[in-house]
Write a structure and sequence with these properties.
The complex is a heterodimer of chains A (244) and B (130).
Chain A (H helix, E strand, L loop, with lengths): L13 H17 L4 H24 L4 H12 L2 H38 L9 H7 L3 H16 L13 H32 L6 H35 L9
Chain B lengths: L8 E3 L2 E3 L4 H4 L3 H8 L5 E2 H11 L11 H10 L3 E8 L2 E8 L1 H25 L9
Antiparallel strand pairs in B: 1-2, 3-5, 4-5
The chains are: A mainly alpha (244), B alpha+beta (130).
């Protein structure tokens, strides 16, 4: 410690770190949302707490008092958790929607190649009859784009979607993807079993695999969206991200 | 600010109590943009700047400042980047061009609003154009 600056307080004693760790552990349980943004939020809070404690120590406060004061200034875990919840819920909805918007075409293109294979490029009515869920998927894509726009940087000009609306939209898009995947998988099963349909085996394998992977992912997204919606319900967040 | 670390100021014998979060609703965005105007700051430095700039008047749980900064980032008014300082990761925030424009706009709106409220509270007539 020879080259530590004279003004710097001594390293925090173990009980200070333990108090901060305890606070953050409780806060972590109160935070909804995806692990990445949640971990970043906790890391930022930890940094702020360490700064506040160091500031108190520099003013001559004993470690325990500086820690207690820093924690009081930060707010209770409930207050801080409720403040973070709307942002984390919005982050979750945006991630879910982005995932579906990116994977949608990657999955869909194989089904477009597989199902209406008689005519290429297929006419709209051919597409709809081969993939009945197509209009629903169109609505889901439009909803995803609108929600992403009204929860991102476009909120400077557009009315902001609140976290509940964003999560409901994400859940709706997940349901749309589920219905789309299950309907095309069912169509393939019926065609294979009831007709003499002989699709391209590679395209069929890729399309079926893609949908079989996405079905549990969409189900998981639905479950997570529901859990976060229930969390928002519990804490009573109905407004757009709190503009305190 | 922690109430214990500040004395209560008085004006004309009336105690000026620290403002609660509710009183700041709708204004925090502008205040955060204003403290970031001078240059990039990390979260705790933003909190300290808010306290220092308000003379300790704004009594906000500091943990509520971080989500407000995140929302400003989502809106494109600030951008953030992580640095490593003395072995710890730290998130710095800085104003974007849109943030500077938003701050100018907020200042103009606030000037008009505060003038109107001040005249009403002081029972003064609104100055008429001559």
């Amino acid at each position: 410690m020879a080259n530590r600056h004279l003004d710097e307080p001594d390293p925090e004693p173990p009980q200070v770190d333990a108090a901060v760790d305890d606070y953050l552990a409780i806060l972590a349980k109160d935070l909804p949302g995806p692990p990445g943004p949640k971990a970043a939020a906790l890391e930022e809070v930890r940094d702020g707490l360490n700064e506040a404690i160091a500031s108190g120590r520099t003013r001559g406060l004993p470690p325990a008092v500086a820690t207690r004061q820093a924690l009081v200034e930060l707010g209770s875990t409930t207050t801080v958790g409720e403040a973070f919840a709307p942002e984390l819920a919005t982050a979750q909805a945006r991630r879910t929607l982005m995932a579906f918007l990116i994977t949608g075409p990657l999955v869909g293109v194989w089904w477009l190649l597989l199902l209406p294979s008689r005519l290429w490029p297929p006419r709209p009515e051919t597409l709809w009859s081969a993939i009945p869920a197509l209009p629903l998927l169109g609505v889901a894509v439009a909803a995803a784009v609108v929600i992403l726009a009204t929860t991102g940087s476009m909120i400077r000009w557009l009315p902001e979607s609140n976290p509940r609306q964003a999560l409901l939209g994400a859940a709706g898009v997940a349901v749309g993807a589920l219905i789309g995947d299950l309907s095309v998988l069912t169509t393939v099963m019926i065609r294979l079993l009831a007709t003499d349909w002989h699709p391209n085996a590679t395209i069929e394998a890729v399309a079926v695999t893609a949908s079989l992977i996405r079905v549990p992912c969409a189900t998981w997204a639905l479950v997570r969206s529901r859990a976060t919606l229930q969390h928002l319900q519990r804490i009573g967040t109905t407004l757009p991200t709190d503009r305190t | 600010m922690a109430s214990g670390s500040h004395t209560i100021d008085t004006v004309g014998g009336v105690a000026l109590l620290p403002m609660r979060a509710e009183a700041l609703k709708g204004h925090l965005d502008a205040l955060l943009l204003a403290v970031l105007e001078a240059g990039p700051l990390h979260g705790y430095a933003v909190i300290e700047a808010l306290r220092a700039g308000s003379g300790g008047t704004f009594d906000l749980p500091t943990g509520t400042i971080y989500p407000a900064l995140h929302r400003l980032e989502r809106a494109g008014f600030v951008r953030s980047h992580w640095n490593v300082v003395t072995g710890r990761r730290r998130r710095d925030y800085e104003l974007t061009t849109s943030g500077r424009r938003a701050l100018s706009s907020e200042r103009a709106v606030w000037a008009q609003f505060s003038t109107a409220v001040s005249h009403l509270l002081a029972n003064q007539p609104w100055p008429t154009a001559t």
